[in-house]
Amino acid sequence: MSRRYQRAHRIAALDPERDHLEIYQISAGLEFPWDYTRALEFALFRTYCVPSISRLLAATGEFRDRPQRRYDDTALLMAEMAAHGYDSPRGKEALRVVNRAHGRYAITNDDMLYVLSTFIYDPIDWLDRYGWRPLHDNERLAAYFYYREVGRRMGIRDIPAAFGDFRSFKRSYEDEQFRYTDTNREIGDYTVNLFAAWFPPFLRPAARLGVRSLLDEPMLRAFGFDPAPAWVTAAATTGLRARAVALRFLPPRRQSVLGVSKHNRTYPGYPTGYQPSDLGAPAPSA
């Protein structure tokens, strides 16, 4: 058990602003890799509750035509920055791909700010509920400082200057912007179907229910989804918490999973033979 918490002690000894990249790499790549992956999936899902975001995504046709590729591109590009550092050659190349993709469209700075905020706070909220150990305050702050630097390199303006201020911005933006629209529902359906497609056909109806069971009330309203039956929500929550308890007794992970995608569906064998510039959606035809 003492070995299981060695990295938490290491995190406690680091400075969350100066050492934010190292802390984030430990937390996301070694301590909570599965949880970070799931939480970031739902963080992106959450952004589709903003009508201006879902409207743009519906207009591009990417979710209709290439949902798996769009998911893989986003996940791999963000992982490149985290695994190698946003100022490394591969991290800079990944940032160029992200910035080029965003530069094709008229995206408001507030929408970009909101998406950035979900990458910080949704994993924190997930881990507060389902993590195998409590997050150290340094992990919370390091996530903020890490994404603040990524956001600056993406040209996002007016990033709040403190952890609490950015969380307040996120809450206020959701209160103001979350509301049902047909494009929310369209992108929401595409996303639920994408998640379900990762399972064998006979399990897909259960997977769709499982996804809905993990959405909070504001998300359900904004997508126009019916809530999952209470017993499904209870089963999902119990299962995730039981998993967290079991993980406490496992030995610590030896190798980081950041930048490694063993089950990638769009780019088999990634990262072998691939560069960040190989990723990303093609330019729109019109």
From TrEMBL:
One matching Pfam family, short form?
Answer: MPAB_Lcp_cat
Query: What ranges does the record give for the region Disordered, renumbered to this chain?
Result: 262-286
Please report the stretch or stretches of sequence annotated as the ER-bound oxygenase mpaB/mpaB'/Rubber oxygenase catalytic domain.
58-234
Q: Which domain of life is it from?
A: Bacteria
**Signal sequence coordinates:** none
Could you give a GO molecular-function term held by this entry? oxidoreductase activity
Q: Which PANTHER family match?
A: ER-BOUND OXYGENASE MPAB_MPAB'_RUBBER OXYGENASE CATALYTIC DOMAIN-CONTAINING PROTEIN, PTHR36124
The name of this protein is ER-bound oxygenase mpaB/mpaB'/Rubber oxygenase catalytic domain-containing protein
The organism's taxonomy opens as:
Bacteria, Bacillati, Actinomycetota, Actinomycetes, Micromonosporales
